[in-house]
Amino acid sequence: MVRPMVAMAALLIGGESTISRRCWSLATRWKFTFVKLQKSKAYFKRYQVKFRRRREGKTDYRQRKRLCCQAKNKYQSPKYRFVVRFTNKQVICQIAYSLIDGDRILTSASSNELPRYGLSVGLKNYAAAYCTGLLCARRLLQKVGLDDVYEGNDEVDGNVVSTTIGKTTYYVDEVDEDKRPFRALLDVGVKTTSTGCRIFGALKGAADGGLDIPHSEKRFPGYDRDSKEYDADMHRERIFGGHVGEYMEYLEEEDNTKYQAQFAAYLENDVEADGLEELYESVHEKIREDPSPSEKKAFSPDKSFKRTAKLTLEERKARVQAKKDAKNAELEAEDDE
């Protein structure tokens, strides 16, 4: 009904030739008074709020359900998850499983522990994520008594290792006849799983450490989605911090001031671009030698500190009055001068 009325108005104003100029300007001035009610009282009566951690954007429950639910014919054998999280300062890797009243952590490792093994800078990059995943895997296998059976991949080459027995694929070099490898599923949380993400550095470290984690090379650095080819050498270079070394050399040549500021911690610890690969190799060796956690230090609180007692009402009034008297005396002294 709107368009015929607009056309008639346009003819009355100036003929058919003016339709394109004037009719739509008239249409934009008209206002429709009837608005459809979208959300009624019945809608709000039946509205169900989402889970708290979903509202906070912390948990993907669709993903969590598939990671935690176990087949009923396996009774109470849990599904283990290899949890990787990044904070502003560190990488955290955990082996967790869920119970009805919450999750249980079987073992964990953090990149804050890497200074024990000789790595004190760059605790959040791809190479540090690999070291943390390796540490978590070796620590877990030592705890369950599989560290001698599944030693993992000593020669880091970036390739995906797998063994197929029957219809089952195990992502380890060899499968023992008596003891199967420890299987865990990667839990990325709400992190975007883009190609080359640091999460997959921790995954590769855990897989090289001897854990059976299902994965492929499609999200590792060096994989080209268009040609469907995988460059394992590029991934190996990323594991040993080659990308960090290249940027250090580039920045030192182009902007030395920025280099001194950005890599101040590296310079303070005498870490150079040429020695990064040797540094990470030594860290990997030390982790394999002793992945056990360090002893906890006994916490002794500082008991010398004592909180000041709260002032009473009379004391607060007296304090205010003393300030007023001091200010009045100061003003009187100025007037006398």
Short key terms for the protein model shown above:
single chain, 337 residues, alpha+beta, four-stranded mixed β-sheet, two-stranded antiparallel ribbon, 8 strands, 42% helix, disordered N terminus
Question: If you had to describe this structure to a student in words, what would you say it looks like?
Answer:
By secondary structure, the protein is an alpha+beta fold. It is built from 13 helices and eight strands. The chain has helices spanning 2-14, 19-29, 41-45, 52-55, 61-68, 126-144, 199-208, 232-239, 242-254, 256-262, 264-268, 276-289, 313-336, and strands spanning 81-86, 91-99, 102-110, 163-165, 168-170, 185-187, 223-224, 229-230. The strands form three sheets. A four-stranded mixed β-sheet has the order 3-2-1-6. A hairpin with a 4-residue loop joins strand 1 and strand 2 (91-99). Helix 1 (2-14) packs across helix 2 and helix 6 packs parallel to helix 12 (276-289). It is extended, with a radius of gyration of 33 Å. Residues 1-21 have low confidence and may be disordered.
